Amino acid sequence: MxxxxxxxxxxxxxxxxxxxxxxxxxxxxxxxLPFVLNQVVLSxxxxxxxxxxxxxxxxxxxxxGYQKETIMIGSGSSELLELIIKTxxxxxxxxxxxxxxxxxxxxYATIHQATYISVPETNDILDDLYQAYIAHLPKVIFxxxxxxxxxxxxxxxxxxxxxxxxxxxxxxxxxxIEYANLKExxxxxxxxxxxxxxxxxxxKAWGLAGARLGYIVSQKxxxxxxKIAKTPYSVSSVTQALGIEALKMDQEIFKRIEDIKxxxxxxxxxxxxxxxxxxPSYGNFLYVYETRLNLYExxxxxxxxxxxxxxxxxxxxxxxxxxxxxxxxxxKGLL
Length: 335
Ligand SMILES: Cc1ncc(COP(=O)(O)O)c(C=O)c1O
Prior knowledge:
The chain is α/β, with parallel strands linked by helices. The chain folds into 2 domains: 5-30 and 251-334, Alpha-Beta Complex (Aspartate Aminotransferase, domain 1); 39-248, Aspartate Aminotransferase, domain 2 (3-Layer(aba) Sandwich). Helix content is 37%, strand content 16%. It contains 11 helices and 13 strands. It has a 7-stranded mixed β-sheet with strand order 2-8-7-6-5-3-4, with helices on both faces. Strands 9-10-13-12 form a 4-stranded antiparallel β-sheet, covered by helices on one side. Helix 2 (54-64) runs parallel beside helix 8, helix 3 packs across helix 4 (104-111) and helix 9 (250-274) runs parallel beside helix 11. The longest helix is centred in the last third of the chain and has 25 residues, at 250-274. The protein is globular and about 55 Å long. The site of pyridoxal-5'-phosphate has 13 residues, from helix 3.
């Protein structure tokens, strides 16, 4: 059997399942809440789940004032990011994004035989993206805001101006927006921007990475269009019920977000004293630069797993206070 050409040079997404005592590599939250699973859900597992996610979407709408017809749920936001490509991108079309950013934009683009172009991240990233838009006329632009892995953040008013200037699909991936400022979300701006799609996930601040749940918000007509290529029943009934449980615990979750933001500030200040460069971050992670040693390998030997990138860059998830103390002590010992 021959693998299709587009996949020949790809390697699988590899979360490196290596044992460690502290996991600071995947931007999860490192504490869990007492989620309860309703018996009714467990006793109806012989049935397919509600494909539309009606109850979950109603709960989201009640809680955040969204409009029902403008939301679609997915198996993690990853499914919905790929769905955008399945729906709007044909082979050889261009997909535009930023470098570095979430690696799956490029992976999905390549799988679907699109041409992926990325613009190096600078302070003028939207100007640079616009120049690239004029030059390459992409079908889709992906912007992770805050950006994973650098932690940078583009204010809402600038994004809106940009979205109005281009006519292609613009996806604002708000996987980490809770760690920046929820007032900066673009979800409530879909009515005036027909090309805007906003994705959210329960995997990060909401602490449900294991359940696989995300959602996308866009104008009603766009959501109808996305339904054509959607995999049926991709979000299990157990996951939908867990999403509703998490929404009930919003107060605890928002408190935990504030705690993580505080730990982010103290960790940033401590790491800044030790490492060659630490970038300010609006996510639950810090992007750092260090060339005196291989920080990934050295920390792994001490049981701490972070994420390594090329050219001396690393991404460190903000864990608990105790975990950050252990991290800082470990780095002190290494330098
Ligand atoms: C920017 C960004 N978007 C989307 C995702 C995918 O999240 P999920 O599929 O778990 O919702 C991630 C995961 O790391 C991410 O960093």
